[in-house]
Design goal:
single chain; alpha+beta; 9 helices
Length: 259
Amino acid sequence: MESVQSRVSAQEWTLRVELAAAYRVFAMLGWTHLIHTHITAAAPGENEFLINPFGNLWQEITASSLVKVNAAGEILDQGTTDLGINPAGFKIHSAVHTSGRAVSKWVMHIHVPEVVAVANLQRGLIRGLSTYSMDLGPISYHSYEHATDAESDVCERMVNDFGPTNNVLLLRNHGSITVGESVHGAFFLTYQLVEACRVQLLSLSACKTDADLSTVPDAIVEKTYQIVQAKYTGEDFGKLEWDAARRQMQAEFGDGYRA
């Protein structure tokens, strides 16, 4: 039987390996909801995308098992499993990928409880509360609607709420979406978001009133964000951190994701 690697381009195979690695890094970090939520990446073909086979645990995902679909969610390449995809999940991702946003190649969607908790707060995420939150840039918000609601154009509304330039969308009562042009950019944005939410919940739990919180002024928050975006580490945002997380994942799970 023809292998997946033999029937796709070298560019797509490299992308498959990176995406499989991302799924396993998320599994290592505990950012999973059993088989739910998704990481998707735009494939080299026009309006073609890679997504997880719906039913696999994230630590089971390999480069060959990923499913290739078009923007409508129709399967173009099944991969090595007989599993389909989660239509509701991909509907959200497809809307972001095809929205015409400047940044939309990688889309990461999580239901991490701390992130859901902060998304539920009317005030949302406090950007000046930690070094984690200052790395995120402006935050967008979207009120809860189920993606399969036939009576609601939820995806159009979600994309409008996201806006053209923000890279973090908090989904009220649901989770978050982070986007990037690279796996490392989207990954580290997600990492900083999760940790920012944890710090915020810890801080709020120790306070009686807002007066007990110490926050950084908006001007310094914005300046810090710009410094971090401008290759503060000598590499693109998140590149060194992604490489480190991937090495840690390989040490724990091995390199079976490459298969």
